[in-house]
Amino acid sequence: MRWLAWALLTAVFWGVGPIFAKLGLGKADPLLGLSIRTFGVAFALLVISLATGNLGSLTKVPLLTAAALLAEGVFASLLGHFAYFNALKTGPASTVAAVTASFPLVTLMVAAAVLGESVTVGRAIGAAMVVLGLVFLRLF
Questions:
Q1: CA-to-CA distance for 67 and 73, rounded, in angstroms?
Q2: CA angle, 92 then 98 then 101, to 5°
Q3: Interatomic CA distance for residues 14 and 23, integer angstroms
Q4: Given 27, 34, 48, 50, which is the most exposed site by the fewest CB atoms within 10 A?
Q5: What's the pLDDT score for residue 139?
Q6: What is the pLDDT of residue 11?
Q7: CA distance 98 to 123
Q8: How far apart are CA 120 and CA 110, in angstroms?
């Protein structure tokens, strides 16, 4: 159940993050805002990696592992956050966050197609509930 604690902590951080992004994007272009955010994260990760000694093990990471992690960074951090910051700049934070939180639907479909994960009845019902929740958020 350790994963659950981490997942709940993620939800808290991802729930608070859009508030800071919305405040920061008030007088900044989304691309500039994303750049500032990314530089800050990169600096913090460099300091932490140096302090923990993890930077030295970078050469031990297999090439395919590094490529997969780089692809995740391009999709989630670069492209995803660029689209997210553009939406957040012009839309209400609560609605933008709710719509972007539908990403598990995409993950469910891609995981089934690429990783061979099964789409169970429970997962399909859960996906339908996410869509229904988005409809309610949009209409009411």
A1: 10
A2: 135
A3: 15
A4: 27
A5: 72
A6: 84
A7: 19
A8: 14
What is the rounded distance in angstroms from the CA atom of residue 100 to the CA atom of residue 81? Answer: 10
pLDDT at 56: 84
Report the Cα–Cα distance between both ends of the chain, in Å, rounded. Answer: 35
Nearest to 73 by CA among 42, 119, 46: 42
Tokens of 109: 């479909």
Number of residues that this document lists for the chain? 140
pTM higher than the cut 0.85: no
**Tens digits of residue pLDDT in 30-40:** 999 999 999 99
Among 23, 29, 7, 11, CA closest to 93: 23
Mean pLDDT across 65-84: 94
DSSP state of 60: G
